[in-house]
Amino acid sequence: MKTIVLNQRKERDELLSRQYLTRRSNQDADLLLNSYLIKLITGPRRVGKSTQALLMLRDKNFAYLNFDSQQLLDAWDANLVIRILDDVYPGYDYLLLDEVQNLDGWDMWVSELYRMGKNMVITGSNAKMLSSEMATVLTGKYLQVEMLPFSLEEFFDWNKLELHNLKPEVQAEGKVLTDDYMRNGGYPEVVASRQLVRSYLDTLFDSIVWKDVAKRHNVRNITDLNNLAMYLVSNFCNPLSANELSEELGFSSVNTTKKFMDYLHEPYLFYYLSRYNNKLKLMKKAPRKVYVVDNGFVAAKAFAVSENLGRLLENQVFIELIRRGYDIDKTMFYYRSRNDKEVDFVLRKGAHIERLVQVCFDMSSPKTEKREVDSIVECAGELKCSNLTIVTRDEERTIEKVGYTIAVVPISKF
Length: 414
Known about the structure:
Helices cover 46% and strands 18% of the residues. It is of the alpha/beta class. A six-stranded mixed β-sheet has the order 9-10-11-12-14-13.
């Protein structure tokens, strides 16, 4: 066991010696570390959670355990580990537990460490850590920091350009980068090597489905699970119900379909957006729109005859709203009017609807403009909301329609 911990210390020191892009965050790292609450960094695999934790702790005296190691899991002895950590990291102030959800009964062990007064930073790639495991044993004992792939702003940072302050001589380069991000997404490993997008994300997608879903939940019928994942990534931004999916894919049970859909949400691979309705029962019955955590997965995995730029832009806007803290269960929905007009995103604050957001890649055609404007205005009337935005690829103007003012903004300014 000591050899494993010592090897992980070498791994930690090697990681600390690398250069990293500092991610944009609303969280103050020092403020977080000064709190004795558990710092829980969650998000999909390979988005930089470990890096973020290491950067937070870089100048501190901290111990490190990486649970993405079968060696560590096989040799696990909780009491022995604590003694070895004291020996390997004398007088450490913080304890970093990386991908801790891989350890059986991790929540009870972390709770015990918390009672011992350990100041912990934890990373995990599973949304269920928050919903059930964290909520039952560790209620009120943790602060959450959620991480996603690079935002468009961070992608520009990486390319040494400032998204919101582009000089005239780099405007063309800015447009190329904006289109590149929409098509290929923001996974840290591929922002520097765009030629790797398809092969890297193809492998990562399969790894999430097999390791984080099939293995974790002991799924026997992996073919059905994989077929569902492929169908969802190919039909992103479309409304789908478990009944339709079950029929379309020839699954024997709607319940299995629902279960598999939930499993695929847990590692932050897919999100399901409900249709807004004042009546909860009706909201639960309506089909949900499917979104994928990064557009790069669409490029790598989706079965598509042609590129659907409108849906890629919509998916990008959705993930940006998630990044801003909107919640698919409480504060973000889509809406369909009584006349079947749709608005992509209804954003709510408390009981109040604060904004409607429509996404349209190219609104230069009068026919397209009329369709999009009529949809958002009709939905605005039914939902009694006057803060209206249409996000486009690069148009910027204001539209006045029957007493409503609609801000048309390019994705770079949204």
